[in-house]
Structures are given as structure tokens and as C-alpha cells.
Sequence to fold (430 residues):
Amino acid sequence: MERYVIKGGNPLAGEVEIGGAKNAALAILAAAIMTDDTVYIDNMPDERDTNILLQAMESIGVFVERIDRHSVKINASHVCNHTIENEFIKKMRASYYLIGALLGKYKHAQVVLPGGCDIGLRPIDQHIKGFNALGATVNIEHAIINAEAEQLVGSHIYLDMVSVGATINIMLAASMANGQTIIENAAKEPHVVDVANFLNSMGANIKGAGTDVIRIKGVQKLHGSEYTIIPDQIEAGTFMVAAAATRGDVIVKNVIPKHLESISAKLIEMGCVIHESDDAVRVEARRRPIATHVKTLPYPGFPTDMQPQITVALGLASGISIVTESIFENRFKYVDQLMRMGANIKVEGSAAIVNGVERYSGADVSAPDLRAGAALVIAGLTADGFTTIDNIHYIERGYEDFDIKLRELGAQIEKVNTDEEVRKFELKMA
Fold:
């Protein structure tokens, strides 16, 4: 089984290039099947989730061609069925975007209930509410979602909770509905805006993305497009926090600094110096982090996908920090792994009380999910001695070349398959 082995203690230094936003890419790939014309997508991240979704699309007759590692050509003019098989869905949650895309284009979709990371209950009731409001009938039987409609008709939809997935899925279906759809209490995340921009580039009529009210005038047909995906906010934030935790000096390139404002603000509170340019952020962290409090919130608040990483950094801070998770109820599963490395953290309900320690100690740990796995890597980079992390398939769901990029910043990390390779790495580092 593949795992990472890390020798900690090196401050990260240098430059790192951020790839395309995974969360935008997944929805944009799904949206690409809503036209019979050819679509070209650039800045496509090459990691497990996007590759699994491309395979799922090919399974229903979509033509997919990798022009290069980060560019893909898609033509969905010969889609032969509207059912996505379980082997793809169980591996990733965002496959549910295919429901909105297929329902919008073909008025029918059948998809197994999605999988992904186990970070708590993530119901799709708001998705179903939106589809029903558009005139679709949605049934769930034996963990299979079947959505169909004779026609979709625009509607006024108020989301009971801010949901990125529901906002995007309703936006997809409503783009080809008759009449106008209004989504209130819509998610405002950057990738919601990116998906709306992509749909508009294909001829959709969407206004208000990035605000809490989105208006969509349905069109009968979408056309081909060439589109470049925005940089990944969470990958960028992960490297920013890694720089802070290791007391390094890192320039994070190919980013949109505005998307990182909540992360930058917390790092400044923790004592980092942040320099921003048009498309880069530099993090200088020369001393031990300062304790602060963090609460996850929908954008533009602090992202839940950055909560494990910032908690790892605060675990090394001087003082006591409180981290409150307000989005998912099961996102502190990594804490027991971090405590094996010497962290002093007590979880009470939706909050973690983090009493900073001087250093972590290397240990054998396991990644419980994507972002927690990345957080454990950061912990390993700061720790005394050697750390091994298994279940890295979770990490590779959302980070392209994570170990390679870290090595280019001076980290001592390798991907290995066997205990013998672990021993060789430890001997080499010793």
C-alpha cells in the first residue's frame, strides 16, 4: 500500500505553482456534457477525483481526450445512456453533479448515492428540493437516485442552508429549463462563480453568481466553449499553512489572492508576514505561531476544507486556540492521529481546544480523509524524527504531485510502497 514517509524539521522555502481548482473542475466537467458541441478545458487538475469523473463520463458515451496533462477535449454528442454505474460513484461525492447536468440536458438521470470522504452527514435534500421545484420527480430506492421530468420549468428556490453542491446542481439543471429560476441563499464560493462563468461561456444566462441570489434564464441549447479553470483555493491555502507551520518562506504562485483573504487574515493573526501580488502570495513565518481562534463559515468566511490544516499549525502555537467547525459535524476525526504525534487537543462537540506544544514527534498515522491527510503531512513536516502516513489515496484525490511539490520546497518526503522502502528512506536521511 502506498504511503508517505517524512523526515521532519526542514522549513519550507521557495516557490510552488498551484493547479486548477478541483471543486470547480468536477462541476465544469459535468456541465460539459450539456452541449453536443466540443468543449476544451484548460488548467484541469490531474488527480484522482477528476480522472474518476472522466471515466464515469466515458462510460455513458462521452468522448474524452487528454490534449496534455492539464487540458482536456470533451464531446458529448453521442451519450448513450443516463445511468452512472456504482463503481465510479462510490469513489467520489461530486459525481452528483452529473444528476443536474443530465437532468438539464436529457430530462433524466440515474445515479447511485455518492461517496467521497467520511466527514459527516452531507445530505442531498437541498438538491432534491431544487430539482422538485423545477418540475422533476426524484425517487431514491436501494441507494439509487432517479430523477426525471417531462420538462423543467423555472422556479423560485430558497435553500434552507447554504450548500455549494445544491447551488451548482440546481444551476446546472435550471440552465436548460423553461423560464427563469431564482436561487436564494445561494453559496458564494469561487468555484460556484467559475461554474456559472463556464455555463455562460456555453450560452447560458446566469447572473448573480458570487452573491446569495442567483438568477438563471433557461436556454434551449448550449454550445461549445474553450475555458480555463480558476486556481485551487484549498491547495494554495494548504501550502500557505505548511509554510507557517514549518516556519518557512514560500511564494505560492498562480493564485487569486482575493480567494485566500480569510486564510491570509488568520495567518497574519498567527504572526506571519503576507505579501500579495496580482497572482501570488508570499508567506514568511520566522517564529513560532501565535494562538488564535478560527471558525469555519461559508465563503467568504474561513473554509471548512482548511480547518484540519490550520488546526495542525495552531497545535504548534504559543497559547490556547479554539477551532470551531460549523459546516460538517464529523471533521475532527484526524485529532486522535495528531495526538499520537504529541498534539494537545480536546474536542468538545463542534469545537477543538488546541493547547500548543513546542514540537510534534514522528509517528505512524493514517489519513482519515482528503484534507485531514494533507494536515497530517504538514504535521510530519514539522515533527522530530520520521512520520509515515498511509491511506494516501485520500490525499491524492485532491492534490496533484503533493509530495513532488513539497520536495521542491525542501521537504524530505517520499512516496513508498513497502516497509523496505521506508527503511531505505530512513537510512538515507540518517
